Amino acid sequence: MDNDPPFVKEIDAKAAKGDEACKAAAICLQVLRSVICSNLAKPSATAYFAGAVAALQKPGTPVATVSALLLVLRKAIPAASPAAVSARLNDLALAITGVLRNPDDEGLIKQSLSSLMAAADAVYGGGGRPNRKVLKPVFAFLGDQRSGIRHQAELTAMMIIKKAAAGGDQQSLDFATQHLVQMIACGRTNKKDVDEVPAKHALTLVRACGPVLPVANLVALIEELLKLPGLIGQHPVCIEAFDFLEEHFGTEFAPEDAAYAARAELAAKILPALVTAPVTMLNVNFVAAFAKALAKCAAVLCGERLLPSLPSEVAVLKLSAAKKLLGLFAEHDPTVLKGARNACLDYFTAAGAGGDLAMLDELPELCKPLLGHQSKGAWRHVLPVVTSVFISLSEIRAARVGLPEIQAWTESRFSRSRVLVEMLVSAREKARGGELASVFGDQLVECLGGAVTAFGPERVLQVADLHILDRPLTSLTYEHDSRSWMLLVLQTSCRYTFLSYFAAKFLPMATALKARAAEAEKAGQGIVGKKYLTLLEQVWSLLPGFFDEALDLSTTLMAEGGKVAKQLVSVLNNEPELRDYVWAAFSKACDGIREPPSELAKAVQESNRSCLQTLSGRILPEMFNAYCKGHAEGQEQDASRVGYKKSLALGAVQSYVRISDGQLVGGLFKKLVARLLKAVSDQSEGDEKSLALPLAELSSALVPHLLPEFLELALKVFSPMLSGAAAASEEDKAVANSLQKAAYRAVLGVLQHPTVQEPGAGADTSRILGLWTTLQESRQTCCPAALKARLACTDTMLKLTEKQMIPRASEPGVKQEYLKILQAILPEIMFHIRDQSTAVREAARECLHVAATTALNQELQTEIVTLISAGLAGLTRHSKASAVDALSRVLYEHSSKLSDDLQDRLITVVLMLLQDTDAQVWRSVLKFSKVVVYVVPKLRLTKLLPHLLKMFDSRHVATAKMLMRSIVERLVKVLPTDVLAEAFPDKHSPLLNYVQKLMVRNARPQSTRAVKKEEEEGDGKEGKDVEMDDDDARPKESFEKFQNNDDDDDDDDRPAAKPVAKE
Fold this sequence. Notes:
Largest sheet: none
Distance between the termini: 71 Å
Strand content: under 5%
Shape: flat
Oligomer: single chain
Structural class: mainly alpha
């Protein structure tokens, strides 16, 4: 027996443990072993395999013995050599066929199929292929009514098909295809149960193996599937068939992948059958599934690489598919309309992505009937489809059309769509208020916007020209008559168009509107004047869209001596209500130059850059002046509105600076800081003094984009301001605090400058590292508004220091230098870990993480723990709780880097604070305890158990039930029951019993738990341990998520609970 193969020993071992099936198999093995030894053969896996096959061929073998032999056979086949299995394959098939003649024994059939699967796998592994004697019994049971047998047959057939496809076994694939086709063709209209339809089981196998089947086999199968509706009607199986087609054709492949070409070949062969398939409305789910399948099949043939090689008849078929899909919008059922909409969106979007312009050119004509009055009920679904056509055309325009051809190309496309756009405009003008508000108004606006994006506003306005100045504003139908509603459409849809059109069309309109508003005010018509001003703002709100990838930015801004640029600058300085639109316009133009989002933008990138760089010497100073004016004007405005305007303006300035010449920006920065220093000097007063804050904000915004030689100047100017708030008078305190915040941002900009972050890039890092002293000196004078910026500076300095330390880690004194830095900044970081501001808390925690990580990587474990632990001796509850929070994070994130002895000493000291009477300190230590039970190995955790269970002695137990329960659950999971029960307080033993019972219940199989559910309903709902499933693994989630898993763990500063009176 010592020479037996491993599978024999495994069966014998299980038999010795009482496994009944293995006991019977062991008896058979004993007989086979005797026969093998009597023939003086070696007891190998091949010998046992041959013996089991021979034994199964004997007639009259009892069923129990046959079952045992099949078990032996299943174990022996994988262990035997593939050559031996291939040699005895016919005998094996003959023996299995004999077993399958008893179709009533489900267990024998499943074992037989498993044996055939193992044999086929072995044969393929040896480079052979199974013959039909193996395949026939497998496929014969695919339609069996018994689910267990059918499932095993499907698994076996699936394995054979996949192995055959991988090994190029076309004969087996053809056999499988033929059999599946016969199953699909065997439609049974009298079977209402889906599982009784053979096609259902064939389809299951086709869905599983479809991706690996050759095109010819798939064509045969899909063609047969498409005949199913004629056999069994619009049956649920037919819906599943269309779902399979949608899934198969919807799979994404790279164009260079062989599967991409194979799928396209399949789609070309299947599309004719799909296009000609009859569709009736007996089953709306059937129609919706058919539409999705047709769309996915046609969409495959829109690929960019396929279009040149497709025959002309495929283009006709694709157009027929579009007609068939659009024809479904004549129906009224919501399911059909929704399915048709989604199908068309998939199809037309794919056409745009693939550049199928020939098909898209025909769609506007096909969409016209859908906008007729008789189809109005379907407009909610039709309009998104028309929008997708326009968007697809705009994508092709932006990505595939050259700048010289853009006008002719767009005009050609618009001529085909002009009537469609006219119908959309007519629909908008005839629609009632309720229809626009709640039926199809949003879809109609998006559709018109798509037309504007595709063809440009100048062409759409040929159809829907504006009459804003031609109609009386007092008319009740002014919006309809003037088409002022088009301004809102244009506002969100103008893109890669011509800025000259805005200058010629809308700037004169804006001037006239402003004049009429002034006239109305003089005439005492205040309401009319406000309406004109509203229209004026709507006209100027179009400007950012015209600057978004503008195709003629350089020629328009430079034309007539920069007339348009001068007008924009004039608006910036003199018209506060319109200033935001100019800021947004310059931001879009500069961002498009820096990172062109389309091929059109790339074509005009250099000319636009050159233009804005040429104008930067005039525009940037005016931007600075406009920002200062905006700051003065915002003194009396709402803070949120002022903040938005400030962010928009600074964003525009920074975007412009990024594309401007570095020396020019440096020169402007020098002028700004010179004005700033003059404004903050003692001699300044009045208006000059009020400019200090906007000048500081502008200067700090420029710092990240300066050349390296200007960084020293930035530090000289802003470093003194870090401490300047302390010396300010009470009336200047607010401004001084804001200046301090701007100074911190400027220093942060220096620290984050690319030349500082990259070693050897040219920045004076020694000068920058000297900022530690400046930061330390300014700690006491830092105002609350600047805390976030200060901690961001600290975080960046820590990271920069780490970069400088790593190359010098072996030098003497480097670690001590870093330790001195930690001694200076850790108290401040820990103080802000529990700050009221969420942003400040997060910044402080990030600083702690960086500091601790660097220290531990430099073998300063004891030092960092000692520094943090010093807070435990603080006199305030805030300092104690902050120190415990910091130690919790360090232990959680870096437990593997802390020695066992250091951990034990640290944990023992912190757990002593479980006896603290303050609620805030006690809860922070309780969180620390939760970290301990998750990171400390179970052997050491047993020693700490008495200290941990001190948590039950606190009077604040009732305020942290969920947190304490999570700790107990973990203890129950990792510690022996007797150890935990002995140490657990008697008063709280019901909690322990409940948790233990809950853990036992969760360990049961799901079926058992379902049976016991009613019996244990009073035990409460099941908890779940989301942190980890094994006892020795460390937590892998973030520290914040780990701590926030407890429902009552958010409010750490709640009032302490009143002591509970003792009974």
